[in-house]
Recover the amino acids of this structure.
């Protein structure tokens, strides 16, 4: 950043950080790192237009800016609200936020099947993590849950709408990575669903990325479904010579076999470089890949069980500042 | 001042046609504005008039207009929100059906004031027959030189068209309306940016309610100060109220703001009193979204003063003992009506109309409906009442658009004022199917659960 | 119906053109809701080939049409009767007896809410507020509002539609 660019100062949960004008509260919090960062279920930094919907990232703005020190009247979606100079934000230090977030988690779960024991996403599911950290162990919901039939949307992708939390990420992905979107959000309210209207196969070289952006187990990789729990696999960074994408991938090994291939996610579960379908679904031989080494997995993740790492590589300088 | 400003000529035979409207002084405001007023003059008069948005929120119109961004070379748009769908509200329909040229004249004035050359009236799809009335009136306005290029030699161009919705209450929210007018699902946008900066097709846009736009006509004709003589305090001007429910004379009335609620309900000029001599039980004064008031808070405020038909007086006491003027959908309930059932009915409405974009509203409205349904049919539990309170609390203020609040407020107010009736539904599961609880007793204004 | 059979007649194509012309060049998607109304009135309901046809008319993707057609409650993506009787069930209509009107129609036509009579003549649907609260109870048939309903009025209405072979989506 050049010196001439004035920076904005923002304080989140008492920690000050300087950011470029236009930065959102969420991204400022990510620059600080740690548990100051609000959870986000629908925002995805590389998908334009995403965010604002799930309401898990709500925060309290106790001071709007240096110029206008009044607090904001309502909690705001941190993924969508830009920083103003001198802004003060409360995330985990706000009772209101904690209460509202627990409410959002409960809402997200009332129609969720809670079928984690048979769900492929278990162990790497954003909703599971969210519920674990911010939810309650019991539910007050006593009615029948909304269900849908599972459908195949293409050779490689299974849509299990019952698990969907309507984050719209997969729709943005198809909009932005493919030239002809074929699926979208149909109907409305709590009847809304992701779908193709008539059963259609999603065919596009990059459509497999909808699996990676899905925060829950609604879109899963048919080449991997029910093969293994993710924590029994060993994730390795790998690449190959691919004409159509960067091929920066993670291959998830069971012994010497590649069980599945995904793109690389950062600590917020976001893919920065999308990979093509060929890399993801068709290259399952070890010889297809140049394996770089073990993928760093957060110690707190269940996937790190039995994976010993000495001196975990430092990914974000600010993250491990302590 | 009993004069009407909008519906003055409503009784004139053929007022829906251009020629009769013109004979009654129609389009004089456009002539005056184009001849002798600059766009800023009109904004100034609207500011002076104190006119506030008639769609429900009551935001000062002049101020809203002054927010519009004016980047060089970017067209701006002015939109009329005719997506009237708030239960209890049917005033815009009446105005458009009876005197469509008043809306068109207001559209021309407002578009001129804001520098917009392409304006639209977005009307709910169910009002298709009114759309046809409007299209006919617009064709007449074009034929008489009030629309099109270089209107009456002023150099001002305006194209005006009507576009239909297709059944979605949410499209009354201005950013959902814009999305819908772009041919998309009516999902409200996340703000900022506000429409004044980035609206229709990404261009600066102002959206106003039908009645607000119509009110610009008398403001230009008579001046902002003269308009502000009508009404009371910050509730200037006249207001269309659509009255429904258990009253003798349901219909649309133009009132001078500041008359008492008692006069409005009981006088023969307006609602004509309760039907069949029944007693008043409750009133929703501003459309289904606003808090319901129990009988003892309808005509008097908690402080014992007369409650007036104005933004301030109806809101007196906040949500604890007050309500809102809202969109002017005035629904009156007599002693035979069941509050639990009514609350369930309204909640079903919000459940049906939630766009499904954000989680608290998508999931919460359905949940509340199910719990209320159970209570209404005598299958509820005492904990359900607190559960409902908690769900509405978790929705309110946490959603993308005000539909969440609109769904939460009626539930909160019903529990606040009629908790006994909810409890009775739990305690008398059989009786509540065949009988109604009747009137609540007057009591101290201690907020339950607040 | 195959794709080739889906074609609006010339006068309605003119009308589609008029709707598109309401919007600036390149913004033709804005006409989608209006064009879907035209298509539904002509074809009876919005089947998948009809929606694909509308997508071609407006040069947009089929999914953009499906998303919109399933969002708005006035569009039918499944076949309905020639006349849709849409009874308002919200608040003010409820307290004026909308539920009784619904059950009367259900009884009279032998169908439930959401169903169509065997002869394909009537579909009964309960809908949310239609903006006629002061004239409750009411129903909408095609484009027409019928207000202050009584059982006798419902009888009269149903007879009128039955005897009029022109009764269609647009009402009488």
């Amino acid at each position: 950043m050049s010196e001439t660019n004035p920076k904005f100062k923002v304080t989140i949960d008492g920690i000050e950080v300087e950011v470029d004008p236009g930065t959102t509260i969420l991204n400022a919090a990510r620059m600080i790192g740690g548990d100051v960062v609000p959870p986000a279920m629908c925002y995805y930094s590389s998908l334009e237009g995403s965010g604002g919907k799930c309401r898990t990232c709500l925060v309290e703005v106790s001071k709007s800016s240096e110029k206008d020190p009044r607090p904001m009247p309502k909690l705001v979606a941190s993924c969508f609200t830009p920083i103003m100079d001198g802004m003060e934000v409360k995330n985990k230090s706000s009772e209101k936020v904690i209460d509202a977030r627990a409410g959002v988690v409960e809402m997200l779960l009332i129609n969720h099947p809670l079928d984690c024991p048979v769900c492929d996403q278990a162990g790497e599911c954003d909703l599971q993590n969210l519920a674990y950290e911010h939810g309650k162990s019991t539910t007050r919901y006593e009615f029948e849950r909304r269900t849908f039939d599972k459908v195949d949307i293409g050779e490689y992708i299974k849509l299990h709408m019952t698990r969907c939390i309507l984050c719209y990420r997969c729709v943005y992905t198809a909009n932005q990575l493919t030239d002809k979107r074929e699926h979208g959000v149909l109907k409305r309210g709590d009847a809304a669903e992701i779908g193709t209207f008539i059963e259609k196969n999603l065919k596009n070289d990059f459509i497999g990325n909808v699996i990676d952006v899905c925060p829950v187990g609604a879109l899963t990789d048919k080449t991997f479904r029910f093969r293994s729990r993710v924590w029994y696999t060993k994730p390795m960074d790998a690449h190959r010579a691919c004409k159509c994408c960067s091929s920066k991938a993670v291959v998830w090994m069971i012994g010497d076999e590649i069980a599945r291939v995904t793109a690389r996610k950062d600590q917020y579960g976001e893919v920065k470089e999308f990979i093509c379908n060929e890399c993801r679904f068709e290259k399952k031989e070890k010889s297809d890949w140049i394996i770089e080494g073990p993928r760093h997995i957060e110690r707190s993740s269940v996937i790190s069980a039995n994976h010993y790492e000495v001196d975990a590589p430092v990914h974000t300088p600010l993250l491990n500042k302590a | 001042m009993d004069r009407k400003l909008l519906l003055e000529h409503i009784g004139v035979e053929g007022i829906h046609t251009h020629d009769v409207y013109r004979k009654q002084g129609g389009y004089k405001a456009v002539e005056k504005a184009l001849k002798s007023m600059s766009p800023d003059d009109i904004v100034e008069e609207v500011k002076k008039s104190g006119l506030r948005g008639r769609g429900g929120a009551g935001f000062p119109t002049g101020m809203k207009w002054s927010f519009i961004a004016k980047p060089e070379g970017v067209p701006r748009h002015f939109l009329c929100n005719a997506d009237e769908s708030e239960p209890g509200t049917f005033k815009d329909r009446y105005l458009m059906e009876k005197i469509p040229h008043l809306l068109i004249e207001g559209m021309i004035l407002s578009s001129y004031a804001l520098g917009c050359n392409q304006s639209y009236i977005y009307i709910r799809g169910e009002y298709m027959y009114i759309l046809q009335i409007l299209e006919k009136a617009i064709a007449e306005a074009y034929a008489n030189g009030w629309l099109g290029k270089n209107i009456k030699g002023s150099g001002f161009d305006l194209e005006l068209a009507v576009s239909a919705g297709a059944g979605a209450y949410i499209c009354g929210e201005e950013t959902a309306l814009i999305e819908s007018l772009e041919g998309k699902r009516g999902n409200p946008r996340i703000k900022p940016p506000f429409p004044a900066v980035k609206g229709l097709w990404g261009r600066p846009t102002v959206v106003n309610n039908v009645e607000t736009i119509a009110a610009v006509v008398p403001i230009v004709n008579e001046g902002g100060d003269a308009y502000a003589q009508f009404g009371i305090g910050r509730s200037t001007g006249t207001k269309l109220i659509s009255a429904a429910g258990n009253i003798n004379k349901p219909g649309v009335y133009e009132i001078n703001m500041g008359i008492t609620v008692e006069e409005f309900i009981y006088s023969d000029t307006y609602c004509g009193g309760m039907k069949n001599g029944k007693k008043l039980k409750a009133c929703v004064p501003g459309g289904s979204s606003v808090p319901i008031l129990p009988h003892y808070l309808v005509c008097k405020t908690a402080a014992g003063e007369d409650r007036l038909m104005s933004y301030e007086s109806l809101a007196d006491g906040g949500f604890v003992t007050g309500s809102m003027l809202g969109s002017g959908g005035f629904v009156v309930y007599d002693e035979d009506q069941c509050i639990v059932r009514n609350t369930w009915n309204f909640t079903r409405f919000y459940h049906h109309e939630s766009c499904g974009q954000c989680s608290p509203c998508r999931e919460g409205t359905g949940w509340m409906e199910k719990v209320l349904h159970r209570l209404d049919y005598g299958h509820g539990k005492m904990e359900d009442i607190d559960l409902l309170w908690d769900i509405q609390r978790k929705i309110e203020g946490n959603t993308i658009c005000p539909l969440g609040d609109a769904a939460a407020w009626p539930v909160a107010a019903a529990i606040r004022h009629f908790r006994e009736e909810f409890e009775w539904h739990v305690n008398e599961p059989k009786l509540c199917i065949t009988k109604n609880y009747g009137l609540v007793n007057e009591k101290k204004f201690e907020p339950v659960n607040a | 119906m195959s794709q080739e059979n889906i074609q609006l007649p010339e006068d309605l194509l003119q009308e589609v053109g008029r709707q598109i012309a309401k919007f600036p060049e390149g913004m033709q998607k804005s006409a989608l809701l209006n064009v879907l109304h035209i298509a539904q009135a002509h074809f009876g309901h919005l089947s998948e080939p009809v929606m694909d046809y509308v997508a071609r008319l407006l040069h947009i993707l089929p999914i953009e049409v499906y998303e919109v057609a399933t969002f708005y409650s006035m569009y039918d993506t499944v076949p309905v009767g020639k006349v849709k009787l849409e009874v308002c069930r919200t608040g003010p209509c409820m307290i004026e007896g909308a539920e009784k009107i619904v059950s009367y129609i259900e009884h009279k036509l032998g169908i439930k809410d959401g169903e169509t009579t065997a002869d394909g003549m009537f579909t009964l649907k309960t809908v949310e507020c239609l903006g006629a609260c002061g004239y409750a109870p009411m129903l909408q048939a095609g484009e027409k509002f019928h207000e202050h309903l009584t059982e006798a009025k419902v009888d009269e209405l149903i007879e009128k539609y039955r005897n009029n072979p022109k009764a269609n989506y647009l009402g009488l």
User: Anything to note?
Assistant: Chain C touches chain B through 42 residues (CB under 8 Å). The two ends of chain C are 28 Å apart (CA to CA). The mean pLDDT of chain C is 93. Helices of chain C lie at 10-21, 32-43, 48-58, 62-71, 91-95, 98-109, 151-163.
